[in-house]
Design goal:
485 residues; mainly alpha; Rossmann fold; 4 domains; 3-stranded antiparallel sheet; two-stranded parallel sheet; 22 helices; binds glutamic acid
Length: 485
């Protein structure tokens, strides 16, 4: 690698980070790590109305939680500080003066209404809408007069003629034919600089070598290339990532489920599992799908990033989550699950300590089902409560099972040491005695003990619940049936 790779993630702190943002951050991070380069975090907060410090802190917390450490940026500093655009005003002003000096900008006084009308007319004639360049014709005297009258204005960049070609590392050559681009805005009427301007100034000064970002910015790239040329800077390499789609092929949105990363954090997805899944949305690693972060970094390249939009599949995310939960040591897993059990009021603080070994046993029975940590709540409900709820179909099924459950009740009551072996022996004896086998033998017992259609093996659940509890549940159940009869 001849140059030192420098990439950046440049979020606008206007809301919570969504899946697409984090995939962009991840690909940049992987690219930096793979090439032993730098990963920069730059906060694009020039839109004062929509940006907030709270969102900025939140997004940094999310990146930290995910383990995507940045080498330069807010909180850590770096040679190009500040890494917040709101603190770089003087730099933008200086660059603007350069463009003014070269007579590459002009003030535009058109109102929103005028521009809207112009757009509609162009569309009506079947043309692609673009700014007509009307204000470029104003003389210096005219602009002075309008300024003196206090007419608000923006500054526009004069787009030179010619086709623009973007050489994209993912999409190949993308051509933007001559005459498609109108003179575009560099500063708003409150004098604040726009995204296309600040992004070029910052990427150039921060020596960014590769801009890896969402495909929604591809149409901004020709504007940015023109600004690089106008300012005398060398443009970076470009890589535009396809948008993430929902299972119906439409752009991923709230309709498809949770899109904010915060929501997945709250559900208790393990960061590595979450990143592993996101990495696969557009990148096909050679050595299989399950790759811890360092292995991903070792393998990552833009050549294997696909052009077509990847589909977000919550079921696959859950599967990925399961693979990572299953790898955790039981002690550690139980420990990180304690807050979820406490929140669900299954246990209190003292029990977390005094019943830790028992909790480990409970966790062990369901660990392979956990896609995220909060799954523990629904998976283990019956261990902590005997208020089992039966669906009508289940009640119907159980109606004919009173004799069987009573036989279990008797057999279990007689067990001295209520361990798995004796539990199983009793179940088999009941089977012989009642002449039932397989599902007919186990399913009613499962329903009576857990209220669930499926779950961990009964031979594991029995000893964890303990003899008294199992017997109590079967007794409750038979009494209820007697009352219903
Ligand atoms: N602030 C822009 C965004 O969040 C950054 C785009 C870019 O990476 O250039 O979409």
């Amino acid at each position: 690698m001849s140059e030192n790779v420098r990439v950046r993630f440049a979020p606008s702190p206007t809301g919570s980070l969504h899946l697409g943002n984090v995939r962009t951050a991840l690909y940049n991070w992987l690219y930096a790590r793979h090439n032993k380069g730098a990963f920069i975090l730059r906060v694009e907060d020039t839109d004062k109305e929509r940006s907030s410090d709270a969102h900025c802190e939140e997004l940094m917390d999310i990146l930290t939680w995910l383990g995507l450490k940045w080498d330069e940026g807010p909180r850590v500093g770096g040679p190009h500080a500040s890494y917040k655009q709101s603190e770089r005003t003087a730099i933008y002003e200086e660059h603007l003066s350069r463009l003014k000096g070269k007579k590459l900008v002009y003030p535009c006084y058109c109102t929103e209404e005028e521009l809207e009308l112009e757009r509609k007319r162009q569309l009506g004639r079947g043309h692609m809408p673009k700014y007509s360049g009307k204000c470029k014709k104003l003389t210096e005297d005219e602009t002075k007069k309008l300024d003196a009258e206090g007419k608000p204005s923006v500054l526009r960049f004069i787009v030179p003629p010619g086709e623009i070609v973007v050489n994209d590392e993912v999409r190949g050559e993308v051509h933007f034919p001559d005459d498609q681009l109108g003179d575009f805005v560099l500063t708003r009427s409150d004098k604040s600089p726009t995204y296309n301007f600040t992004v070029v100034v910052d990427d150039a000064l921060m020596k960014v070598t590769h801009v890896i970002r969402g495909e929604d910015h591809l149409s901004n790239t020709p504007k940015q290339i023109l600004l690089y040329n106008a300012l005398g800077y060398k443009p970076p390499k470009w890589a535009h990532l396809s948008i993430i789609k929902g299972p119906d092929g439409q752009k991923l949105s709230k309709r498809h489920g949770e899109t904010s990363v915060e929501a997945y954090k709250t559900k208790g997805y393990l960061p590595e599992a979450f990143l592993n899944y996101l990495a696969l949305l557009g990148w096909a690693p050679k050595s299989g799908e399950i790759l811890p972060l360092d292995q991903m970094a070792a393998e990552f390249d833009l050549a294997h990033v696909g052009k077509s939009g990847a589909i977000f599949d919550p079921v696959k995310l859950h599967w990925m989550g399961q693979q990572y939960v299953a790898k955790m040591a039981l002690d550690d897993l139980t420990r990180v699950l304690l807050p979820y059990l406490a929140d669900a009021q299954y246990i209190d603080r003292d029990q977390a300590r005094s019943k830790f070994d028992w909790l480990k046993g409970v966790v062990d029975t369901v660990r392979t089902n956990l896609g995220c940590l909060s799954d523990i709540v629904k998976e283990t409900f019956f261990f902590f409560s005997d208020e089992l709820h039966f669906e009508p179909a289940q009640s119907e099924e159980m109606k004919g099972q009173k004799a069987l459950v009573e036989a279990y009740l008797k057999a279990f009551s007689d067990i001295k040491d209520f361990n798995g072996e004796n539990f199983l022996k009793a179940v088999k004896e009941v089977g012989k005695q009642m002449n039932v086998k397989g599902k007919g033998l186990y399913h009613p017992l499962r329903l009576a003990m857990t209220g669930r259609e499926d779950g961990p093996e009964l031979v594991k659940i029995g000893p964890l619940l303990g003899k008294d509890e199992v017997v109590k549940r079967l007794a409750i159940w038979t009494t209820e049936q007697a009352e219903k009869a």
